[in-house]
Amino acid sequence: MIAYLFLVALLIGLIVIGMPVGFSAGIAAFLGAGYFFGDMFDPRAATMIAREALNKMDSFLLLAVPFFLLAGRLMNNGGITERIFGFVSLLVRPVRGGLGHANVLASVMFAGMSGSATADAVGLGQIEMKAMLSHGYDRRFSAGITAASSLIGPILPPSIALVAYSVQAEVSVARMFFAAIGPAMLMAAVYMGYVAYRARRDGMPKGSHATLAELWPAFRLAILPVLTPFIIMGGIWFGIFTPTEAAAVAALYAAFLGLVVYRAYGLSGLMREIRGTMIDTAVVMVIIVFTSAFGVVMIRAQLPTALAGYLASLTSNGTVLMLLMMVLWMIVGCFMAQTPAILILTPILMPIAQQFDLDLIHFGVVMTLTLTLGLLTPPVGMVLYALVRVTGLRFEQLARTAVPYIILTLGVIVAVILFPPIVTIIPDWLLQ
Fold first, then answer.
1. N or C: which end of the chain has fewer CB within 10 A?
2. How far apart (Å, rounded) are the C-alpha atoms in residues 170 and 167?
3. Helices marked H in 263-302 — which ranges?
């Protein structure tokens, strides 16, 4: 058992020193398989790795990954962000601190198209920061809410992280998508509540009511991209298409908007985004293959069983177990990106969740939500790094501005753990 714990430490160490996650998991998987069979060159070790790779790649569900990635890239480069932010900023203009609220609402809408926190922070963040600073908002407050609102991206569907968990845990993607809506909306409400508090305390500006002459043109510009998440989730809900087919529909719709409606790019631009998507997909697939193989090695070594036994000695309560897991996920999120962490941890932790009779949908949403915090915490903090150039603040300054939102998000996570209906009520209602 100590040897397999060493492999886990080796995997984490390789990632920390900068080796790509897929290669790190591959090295750990091959070493683990060789140790399991007693010989690094035993053909059974290579066969086990190859069999798991082929089994995991032979999944119709994984076709959703390149299509959602392509849809997000096309939406990011189609002038969508300006249209969304322009519309929502008019809606909340009369409210004190209205641009802070618009920041959150725009991220909610954009999340239903890109599913990426970094894309939100870089693309939408530039527009939000420019607008807030030009209207007299404090730079650090503006940077903080921009960083925090981007966390909604990987939670609201379509989300590659949710697809990744569904593949590893073999649960319904549709249920995962609908289950994530409640926590994401709670996050948005909590952030907007904090904005309202700061706006009143600091005397932030507010504007006049938008006229119909202002609203109608902004609505016409924003309505088509805003429809994207409704097309995706509505199609899944009514059984028109599966989540994988929904991803293809989203990509086609994004291409139609960019090529035909807005003429934001031509065929050469479309091909450039397709090539970029192919590269991104290859990276994701390598990670999926080798993390899955690593998970199989850990399961055959009965590491999850040993961990479950240890946790059972600490508590027999599923809620307490989830709180303990939350601490683990927070630590992992500080050093590893969200989707790779989900791919590595799910095969190891899922058997433990099953032994404690936890709902795997609830478990997956909490895992995804908690690992998202790593986007705001050093040393990885991908959103913070992305916002350094956008905000004009240093990394350490951004990290300090994110602290209140990290605390608020932790409160949301604890609420989701203690009150599972936040996760389950929407899928139970819509997917009976």
1. C
2. 5
3. 267-300
- For residues 393 and 282, give the distance between their C-alpha atoms in angstroms, rounded to a whole number: 34
What does the chain come to in residues?
Answer: 432
Q: What is this structure's pTM?
A: 0.85
Q: Which residues contact 408 (CB under 8 A, 6 or more apart)?
A: 148, 190, 191, 194
Mean pLDDT by 10 residues, the chain (432 residues): 70 78 82 74 75 73 81 76 84 88 87 70 79 86 90 85 87 91 94 93 82 87 84 85 86 87 84 88 82 78 73 83 89 80 85 88 94 82 80 85 93 95 92 73
**Burial group, residue 316, by CB count within 10 angstroms (0-12, 13-18, 19+):** exposed
| Cα 402 from Cα 142, distance rounded (Å) | 11
Q: Which residue range forms the structural domain that includes residue 153?
A: 59-265+301-430
The number of folded domains in the chain is 1
- Going by C-alpha positions, the residue among 128, 154, 127, 152 that lies closest to residue 141 is 128
Q: Between the CA of residue 102 and those of 21, 222, 330, 359, what are the distances in Å?
A: 36, 14, 28, 35
From 273, 306, 227, select the one nearest 8 (Cα to Cα). Answer: 306
Assess contact for 271 and 92: CB atoms under 8 A.
no
Q: How far is the CA of 50 from the CAs of 26, 60, 287, in angstroms?
A: 11, 19, 14
Q: Write out the two tokens for 341.
A: 């962490």
Dist. CA 146–CA 316, nearest whole Å: 40
Angle, helices 243-256 vs 212-237, to 10°: value is: 150
In a domain, 206, yes or no: yes
The residue written with tokens 């809410």 in the block is 145
| 10: in domain | no
Residue 377 three-state SS: coil
In angstroms, the Cα distances linking 155 to 106, 301, 386 are 15, 32, 19
> For residue 296, is it within any domain?
no
Query: Which amino acid belongs to residue 217?
Result: P
